[in-house]
Structure formats: structure tokens, C-alpha cells
């Protein structure tokens, strides 16, 4: 079984206070290459990217994440963002085409926080040709 995903993380300006979310780059290609007989396919983890937030100004902010197209049947891509300064990470979130909170309660600037991607597949996924997904992280103002 072979499943491959190439990820691209983007930085965006959002919100009235002009806070900025900056991502350090894109993770390398992730490939689920197989499994030991009788076991589930291996899981691939990539923690090579980080993010920073410039002064978020007044109020609270959150970071949402989504992907541009659905993952193939039997293939899952999860993302976890680290948090600091009173913000809270929502833990490992399964990415979909619907934006979901990944960090909430952001009130302070932060830098070098980790981004971890986990790609997994079930045996039912079979052989999946090389595919890419664009991961979009958005910094949004939230109600107090």
C-alpha cells in the first residue's frame, strides 16, 4: 500500500487588528508505504514546520485549519498546533474541507510554535496515487 500527500501551509493576514500568522515552510512529502503482515499500515509524522503570530492586538483570536479537497477513502491527515501564552491547542484535528479550530484563546504574540502532521491509512485505502493537499491556516478574531 502506498499513500502520499504533499502539504503546503500558507500564511494569511486576517482580522481588524492586522495580526499576522506566519508559517515556517512546507513539510516534506509524506508516504504511507506499507504495513507489517497482520498489522495496520504505518503512520507517518512530520514536525518540520512551525508558526508564529505577530502582536494580535486587542481581544482574542483563534487559528482554524482546513484542506482544499477531501482525502481519499481510508486516508486521514491530522494536524496539531502547539500553543503558548494562555492559548489552548485543540489537539490532533482530522483535516477536512471545513475550517475547524486548532488553537483558541490567543491573546499574545508567539514564535516558533510546532506544527505536527500525521498521515495514516487503512488497508481499505489500497494503492493511492501521489496527491497533494493545500492546508490553510487562518488567524481569526473571536468573540470575547
Structure notes:
The chain has 144 residues and is mainly beta. It has one domain (3-142). It has no helices and twelve strands. The strands form two sheets. It has a six-stranded mixed sheet, with no helix packed on it. Strands 2-3-5-11-7-9 form a six-stranded antiparallel sheet, with no helix packed on it. Mean pLDDT is 84; it is low at 1-17.
Distance between the first and last residues' Cα: 47 Å
Return Rg in Å: 16 Å
Helical content, roughly? under 10%
Query: Uncertain spans, ≥5 residues at pLDDT below 50?
Result: 1-17
Calculate the mean pLDDT score and round it: 84
The H/E string reads EEEEEEEEEEEE
Structural class: mainly beta
Our estimate of the beta-strand percent is over 45%
Largest sheet: 6 strands, mixed
Number of structurally distinct domains: 1
Task: Name the strands of the widest sheet in spatial order.
Answer: 4-1-12-6-10-8
Task: Give the CA-based shape.
Answer: elongated
Per DSSP E runs of 2 or more residues, the count of β-strands stands at: 12
Separate helix tally: 0
